[in-house]
Amino acid sequence: MGILANSGTRVLVQGITGREGSFHALRMRAYGTKVVAGVTPGKGGSDVDGIEVYDTVLEAMEAQGANASCIFAPSSSGADAIAECIHDGMPLIVCITEGIPQMSVIKALAEGARTGWEGRLVGPNGPGLVTVGEALIGISPAGIFKKGHVGLVSRSGTLTYEIVDMLSKAGIGQTTCIGVGGDPIIGTTFTDCLRLFEDDPDTKAVVLIGEIGGSDEENAARFLHEGSHKPVIAFISGRNAPAGKKMGHAGAIIYGRTGSAQTKIEALKDAGVVVVDKLWEIPGQLLGILA
Amino acid sequence: MGILANSGTRVLVQGITGREGSFHALRMRAYGTKVVAGVTPGKGGSDVDGIEVYDTVLEAMEAQGANASCIFAPSSSGADAIAECIHDGMPLIVCITEGIPQMSVIKALAEGARTGWEGRLVGPNGPGLVTVGEALIGISPAGIFKKGHVGLVSRSGTLTYEIVDMLSKAGIGQTTCIGVGGDPIIGTTFTDCLRLFEDDPDTKAVVLIGEIGGSDEENAARFLHEGSHKPVIAFISGRNAPAGKKMGHAGAIIYGRTGSAQTKIEALKDAGVVVVDKLWEIPGQLLGILA
Amino acid sequence: MQLLEHQGKALFRKYGIPVPEGRLAQDAEEAGLIASSLGVRVAVKAQVLAGGRGKAGGILLAEGYEEAKAAAAKIIGMRIKGITVREVLVERALSPAEEYYVGLTVDRSRKAVALLLCRSGGVDIEEIARSSPEAVYYRALPPNDELHPFKARRMALEAGFDRARILGIGGIIANLYRLFMGEAATLAEINPLMVTQEGKLFAADSKMILDESALDSTLEGKRTLAESKDDELERKAIEKGLNYVRLEGDIGVIGNGAGLVMATIDAIGLNGGRAADFLDIGGGAKADVVRKSLELLSEDKNIKSTLLNIFGGITRCDEVAKGILEAVGAGSLPFTMVVRLAGTGEDEGRRLLEESGMKIAATMDEAAQEAVLAAKGAC
Amino acid sequence: MQLLEHQGKALFRKYGIPVPEGRLAQDAEEAGLIASSLGVRVAVKAQVLAGGRGKAGGILLAEGYEEAKAAAAKIIGMRIKGITVREVLVERALSPAEEYYVGLTVDRSRKAVALLLCRSGGVDIEEIARSSPEAVYYRALPPNDELHPFKARRMALEAGFDRARILGIGGIIANLYRLFMGEAATLAEINPLMVTQEGKLFAADSKMILDESALDSTLEGKRTLAESKDDELERKAIEKGLNYVRLEGDIGVIGNGAGLVMATIDAIGLNGGRAADFLDIGGGAKADVVRKSLELLSEDKNIKSTLLNIFGGITRCDEVAKGILEAVGAGSLPFTMVVRLAGTGEDEGRRLLEESGMKIAATMDEAAQEAVLAAKGAC
Lengths: 291, 291, 379, 379
Fold this sequence. Notes:
The complex is a heterotetramer, with two copies of chain A and two copies of chain C.
Chain A: E1 10-14, H1 19-31, E2 34-39, E3 47-48, E4 51-54, H2 57-64, E5 68-71, H3 75-87, E6 92-95, H4 102-115, E7 120-122, E8 128-131, E9 135-138, E10 147-154, H5 157-169, E11 174-179, H6 190-198, E12 205-211, H7 216-225, E13 232-237, H8 248-255, H9 261-270, E14 274-275, H10 282-290
Helix pairs in contact in A: 3-4, 7-9
Chain C: E1 2-3, H1 5-14, E2 22-25, H2 28-38, E3 41-46, E4 59-63, H3 64-75, E5 79-80, E6 83-84, E7 88-92, E8 96-107, E9 112-118, H4 125-131, E10 136-141, H5 149-158, H6 166-182, E11 185-196, E12 201-203, E13 206-210, H7 219-227, H8 232-240, E14 243-246, E15 251-255, H9 258-270, E16 277-280, H10 287-298, E17 305-312, H11 317-329, E18 336-343, H12 346-355, H13 364-377
Parallel strand pairs in C: 15-17, 17-18
Antiparallel strand pairs in C: 1-13, 2-7, 3-4, 3-7, 5-6, 8-9, 8-11, 9-10, 11-12, 11-13, 14-16
C-alpha cells in the first residue's frame, strides 16, 4: 500500500535521454519501479537500455499505458513538460526540475482546473516520492528506505534523506515518503498528503518536515484540527533564519500571522501535533507512538 | 421594422462626456433614438443634457434597461469598452472607435464565445447603423435617409452616405443601413446582415458596398449561393488600387483567390448578384428591381 | 507597418528564434569588413520591402572582403521594383538540407490567429498552396498569451516535419507565437526555415507586419513607422499625420473616408485616367488638414490635376473649402483643382469657393471626367 | 530579485504607471543639480533595500540646489539596517490629498495572483490589515495575460476608492497587472498610490520582486541579479553561481539542500552559536563547487569556524571531500573546518579526509557542537 504510487504504477520518464534522466530512470528501474517508457521530443524510436523512447507523452501513454510521469527537463522546458502531461490527462506527475517560473506552474494548474484534469502534480523542485518496496519515482537514494508503517512528507530533499536514514537505522520503516518540493508554488501540499495518509491502512503515523515561508504548515494544522487523525510528528527548519524581507506588505497581509517558524510550530502544536526541536528527537518520539 | 435596432432599442453611449460622444448622443436623440444613458468612468452621477451618466455599463443597464451601446472611446480604451459590454451581456454593441488593435478585438470576441455571449458587435471603425425613422446609432448624417424598402450594408462610411443620398434623391427609401466597419477584424459581417435582411419583411432588396481586401464579400457570395434570396445589388470599390503587398504568403494561402476587386465581383455575379461598375448606376438598377 | 528583413530578424533574436550570424551595412566598404570578420561565405542581401529580390539580383553570395565589397557595391543603389536599395544585410551563407515554411497571420474570416506550416518552404510556397493545398497545414489558434511548445511540436508532426527536428521546430513556432502576440504582429513568416546539413535550424528570411493601431502613439512609434516607408512623400505624410499612399498616375486624389477615396480612384479609372495617390482626410477634418494635404500633393511633380471629393457627414464642407482657400492663398497650386462637395455644409462651402472663382463639379462622375480632361490638357 | 525604488519606478514608467518626475543621483552635487533643474520642492530618498527608510532619516525634503545637496550629503554614506546608502532618488515632492495601497502578489495557498487594495495606504498598511482586515480588499485573479481596465475599475469601486478617480486607478491597476505578468514579478506594490491636491495620481513608492527563475539565464540577467544585491559577498556568490545569503554570526555553514542547510543553522543555534551564512551547494555538486564555496567563505572575516554538512543522495561525499582538499591545498583556510558526511560515497569521502588528518563528526548534532566550540575557542 502506501499512497500516490505502488507496484502497479507505470512510469514514463520525460527527458530520459538527458544525463540526469537516463541515470535516474535506470536507478528507478533497478529499485523495482515499472519504468515503461521515456519521452524526449525528436528522439522517438530510440531506447535507453531497453526503455522505449517516444516523441510525445500521448504516444507513450497509448503505447505503454503509462499512468505516472517523472519529469527531468531543463528549467526552461519544465513548465511545458507539466502542461503536456496535464493536457493528456496524466494521473500522476512528479516534477524534479527546479527553476521553473512560479507563474508557469500557476498557469499550468489553472489550465488543468479549467479542463477538468483530475490528476496530481508532486513538485516541482522536489526529490519525488518513494512507496517503499514498490516504486521509487524521482531521485531519492534507494538504500536508505526500509518498509514499515510511517508516512513522511517534507518540503526538503536532503533533510528527508537525513531523517529517513535515522528512522531506518532506528528500525522504523516507512510506507511512502514524499518531497512536496521547495518552490513557492507546488502541486500537492502537506494537507493533500495528510488526507491520503489518513486513508492508507498501512500508515500508522506521519512525519511532517516543514520550513519557514508560506502557510502550507499552517494549512495542514487547520486540516488536522478538524476531527481525529493519525498521530503526526513535525519538525520545522529555519528558526534561526533571518526574517524574510521578501514578502512585502502584500505577503504580510495575505499570510497574516503565518510564515515564521514560530507561527508554524504553534499552529501545529495547537492541532495536537508533536513538534520536536531537534531533528534527532524524531525516532524516539515515533517509537513512543508506535509502541 | 428593419434589422438590429428599432424604436424600442434603448441606447447607452459609452464615452458620452467626451466631445464626440456628447455631440453624437444629442444628435441621435434628436433623430428620435431612445438614448437612455451614458457611461464615463468617474463621471457617474452627472448628466449630459438630461441623459444620466453612470460609471459602469452594468449600472446603466440595470438603472435604464439599456440594450444597445454606442461606443465613442479613445482608440486606447475602445477594446476595454467592447469587453465591458460583452462581460455584461449587452445585446448590441456599435463601436465607432477607430484604431483599436486587431488582436484586442479578436480576444474580446473569443471571450464572448467562451462565456456564451449571444449579442452582436457592429464595427469597430464604422459609422454605425440607422433603422430609418426609428433609431440612429452612430455618426451618420441624419438628413440623408428616407424610409422605404431597401436594406444597405457597407464597409465604408462616406461611401454609404454618398449612396444613401443618391437613393433618397431618386425616391428610393431604406429600411436599415449598416456600416460594418473598415477594420480587418469586425464583429458583424456582410453575411450576418444579409441573413437578417432575409428575415425582415420590410426589406425588398439589399445594396452591398464592398471593397478590396479580406474575403467578406466572397463569403457573402457563398451564402447567397445557398437557396433563394432577396435581390442584391453590389458595388466593389478599389479596382484601381495597387495590389496589396501586405498580405505575405500567409495571407495568399489563407484567402487563396480572394481579396481583389475582380475575385469579389466574379464571386458575387456567380451568386446572382447584380454588380454595377459605377456607383451612380445603383438607383437605376434598384428601380428596375423594385418596380 | 511592414518590417525590413533585418528588422524582423532583430525581433526573431529578441524572442529566441535562431537567425544566421550577420550585420547590416550602409556601404560596400562596411559590407566587406563584416564579411571578413565573419570569416565565412556570406550572403549579401538588399534590404527593401519588395518581393522577388533574389530574381532581381538583390541577393549575392560572396567570400572574403573583396568579393563582399564588390557584391554590396553592385546591390546598393540598385532599384528593385521602383525602390532604391540603401542598405544590405551581410550574413553567414547556409547550406540547406531542407527548407520549411512557418507562418502566423490574422485570419479575418475566422477571427483567429492562423498557423501555417509546409514542408516545402522557399519562394514557391504560394504555388504549392495553389497546386496542392493539402501540403499546407492550417490551424486556427485561440488568441491566448501562449502556445505551449508541446502543442507546437504536435502541429509540426502533423504537418509532416522531420521527427528528429521537432524539438527545435516546436520551440521556434512557440517563440514566433510569443513574438506575434507580444509585438502585435498581423503577419510573421519564416520562409524558409532552414535545416542545415548539420541539422541546425535557422530563420533564413523574415517577413513581418505589425499592427499600426498597436504601436504606441508616441513620436517613437511614428518615427519607426516613417522609417519603414521607402517613399519620401509617404514618410512626410506620416510626420504630418496624413493617411497617404503614393500611386503611379498623374491625377491627385483627396477624399474623406477610405471607401469614398477608392471609389473616386475607380471613377478616374473608368474615365480613362490614373490616380497619383490615395489620400484620406478621415472624418471631421478641419481646414488645416485639407491645406496640409494639398501642400503634400504639391510636392509630387507627376500630378497634373487633383480631384478633391467630399461627402460631408461629420466633415463639414465649409471647413474643407476654407482649407482649399488657405492652400491656394499660400501660393498657387502646381496643378488644376477639381472640387466636388456634397452633404453637411455644402451650400456654405460652395459659396466660399465660388466667390473665389473656383468651379464646383455637380457629381462624382462629372468631377472625375473633369479631372481626367484637365490632366490630359496639361500634357 | 528585489528591486530598488528607482528600478521599480523605471518599470512603472515602462508600463504607463505615472510616477513623480525625478532622477537618480550618485553624489550630493548631482542631487543638487537635479533639484535645481526640477525647480520644485523635492524629496531626496535613499536607495536601499531596507524597510523603514523614512524613520531612519533616509528621506528628506528640500528645495533648490543648496538644500538638496545638503540633504543628499547627509543621506549618502548613511547606514540603514546595516546597508550603506550609495545613491539617492531626487524627485518632485507631492502634496497628497489621499494615499491608497495597491499590491499584486503570488498567493501560494490559492495558487493565484492576489490583488490587494486599501483606501488607507502608506506605511501603516500592515497595521491596518491586522486591526481591521475588512478594510483590505482581496481578490484572487486568474493568471491571464490581461486584466481589463473595466474589471479593475469595478474592483477599485468595491474597495471603496473615490468614484471620481476610478478611471485613472483602473488603468493603473490594469497596467500593474501587465507589469506583474510581463516582468514575471512575484510582488508589485504601489504604496502609497497618491492622489494629489489637484486630483492627479502618482505611484509615490515602488516595491517589486521579480521571480529569479524567470530571469533569462544569460549574463545580462545574472548581472542585474548581482547588482540588486547590497552585499559584496552576495554579488560575488552570484558571479560564481553559488546560492549564498550572508547572516550575522561567526560560524560558516555549507550544506546540500536548503532544508538541510536551514536545519544545520538551527542546530548551531540550539548549541548556542550563530551562523554566518546560508550556503546551499544543491544536488549533485562536484568538487569545484565545494572549493569555490570555501573560497567564498574565506573572504568573510567574521567567520571563526565552518561546518560543512552533507547528506549524500545525488551528491557524492567523495566529490565533496575532494573539493575540501582542493580548497585546503590552495592555501590554508582562515577558520577551523568541521565536516560531517553521510550517505552516498560516505566511506570513500571519510577515507580521503582522514588520510589528510581532518576529523569527521559522527552526527549533525555533534558537528554543530564542535563548530560552536571551535568558534568560541577562536575568540
